[in-house]
Amino acid sequence: MNRAALFVLADGRFPAGGHAHSGGAEPAVAAGRIKDAASLEDFCRGRLHTAGLVAAGLAAASAAGHDPLELDEAADARTPVPALRTTARKLGRQMMRAARATWPSGELDALAAARPRGAHQPVVLGLAARSAGLAPLDAAYAAAYETVSGPATATVRLLSLDPFDATAVLARLAPDLDKTAAAAAAAAQRIPEDGTDALPAASAPLLDITAQQHAAWPVRLFAS
Amino acid sequence: MTLAAPPTVPAAPRAAVGVRATARVSAATSGGTTTLPVLDGDGPFELRRLRSRGTEARVCVVGAMSAPLGGDRLRIEATAQQGAALHITSAAATLALRGPTTEPATYDVQLTVEEHAELHWLPKPLICAAGSNLRQTWTIHLAPTARLVLREEQILGRTGEPPGHVATRLTVRRAGRTLLDQEAEYGPGAPGWDGPAVLAGHRATGQLLVVDPAFENRPPEVQLLGDSPQDGQAVLTPLAGPAALATATAPDALRLRHLLDTAHT
Fold first, then answer.
1. Considering the domain boundaries, does residue B126 fall inside one?
2. Which pLDDT does position B16 carry in this prediction?
3. Which of A29, A39, A42, A115 to mutate against chain B (most B CBs within 10 Å)?
């Protein structure tokens, strides 16, 4: 157990390509649905309790040592739009490169060989956490935090939002992050009895709809 | 049959009050047409056979009492046996109301489609009235050659009233693998449900799912639907399997249905 590795993994500067993605914030800003710190907080809370919870569950399960290929399939079933499946695999491939350099392990090598074009990012993140000696709950925290820190950072750039305000949004979401990570880790513990059905599958219609619309934009600041 | 064993439905604690009802429909083929060897209504579900269309048997679910109310445990099981074509609709919208207890009502739909069979599940919308609390599930088992068309629509509150609370889970298993697994939670107590990531003030949301083995060779193309965002928006996308899913949100039921109908043409 080496808790400090969590700071390395969850650091926004971890070189896994996340900075190029807005987590749906770019289309929401363009549509006027995110226009200030309050609406950013609403956006992040909705994303955390849907996409964030799903990602955290997958990451916790992967960190607990459940079959990453089965989890990758569960991630596909929970990602109905191709734009988000493509993004998740692209980010998974980048996470894999960074993780294999940072915490080399046979399990990472095996997943990289089985999914050369990338597994879903939370599955890779969970396996990276496992290779770093972290616990499933740690992986759930890293995945959940990333689903809100990405949009918050992107909104600073998209809206010229005050970075202090964006950081305050993240601080106010801390209790929700605790709940989400705990729920995700608890769900992952039920996999031996219930299979991957135990993992959360929460969805957000507008995240799906706007991600697919955004992928068709000819010019955009963020990849997703 | 290569279908996996049906999943166990979590046992609900016994409700102090409330209706417990399970309606069952089973369609089979006989002499080139579809027959209905099982057509058993129960509680609030009265089942009427409608005039057949071609080889397809058609059934209409008619509400025989106000349901679901808090504490009710409702269930519909429908099976299209090998080669059968079954179409199920409903006579009116389903109205979830508060009822005598704040306990949630449950409404579980289990659909099974065997080899070379086809099932259309196209009921009228679910309306979640103020104060209602409903958990709805759809659990679907499809054989590799089965075809399915399913539409589900949630209207959050009657006109001018706040919404009730609704939590749903749609699980589709095809040839033993999970094709789609989706939960949704809207209304009071669901974090972020009305915010810019989830419904952004819209009061109607729904999906149309089409599973067809023909998509294996010719996957459906992505379509962006809805010309003006204030009238709602939708996308039709291929799943990671031979299926297309339209996801829509709209200000009201009428505009929601328009989007889903556009996706289904």
1. yes
2. 58
3. A42
Rounded-to-integer distance, Cα A168 and Cα A164, Å? 6
Residue B190 placed within a domain:
yes
User: What residues pair up with B180 in beta bridges, in sequence order?
Assistant: B172
Contact B202, B232 (CB under 8 A): yes
Q: Is A57 on the interface with B (CB under 8 A)?
A: no
* Upper half-sphere CA count for residue B17 (Cβ side, 13 Å): 10
Pairwise CA distance, residues A127 & A138, whole Å: 11
Q: Give the CA distances from residue A84 to residues B78, B159, B230, in Å, rounded to whole numbers and listed in that order.
A: 33, 34, 24
ipTM of the complex as predicted: 0.96
Helices (H), chain A: 5-10, 25-30, 37-47, 53-63, 68-77, 82-102, 106-114, 121-131, 136-159, 163-172, 174-189, 191-194, 205-215
For residues B5 and B24, what is the distance between their CA atoms, to the nearest angstrom?
Answer: 18
Torsion of CA B183, B185, B189, B195, to 10 degrees: 120
**What CATH architecture is A5-9+21-215?**
Orthogonal Bundle (1.10)
**What does the mean pLDDT of chain B come to?**
93
In a domain, residue B12? The reply is no
Q: Is residue B252 part of a domain?
A: no
Instruction: Name which of B185, B192, B224 is nearest A45 (Cβ-Cβ).
Output: B192
Q: Which residues 122-181 of chain A have a CB within 8 Å of chain B?
A: 176
The enclosing H or E element of B253 equals helix B253-263
Name every residue whose Cβ is closer than 8 Å to that of residue B152 and which is 6 or more positions away in sequence: B123, B126, B138, B168, B170, B206, B207
Task: Assess contact for B116 and B83: CB atoms under 8 A.
Answer: yes
pLDDT given for residue B14 in this prediction: 42
Q: Where are the domains of chain A?
A: 5-9+21-215
pLDDT tens across A105-129, in order? 999 999 999 999 999 999 999 999 9
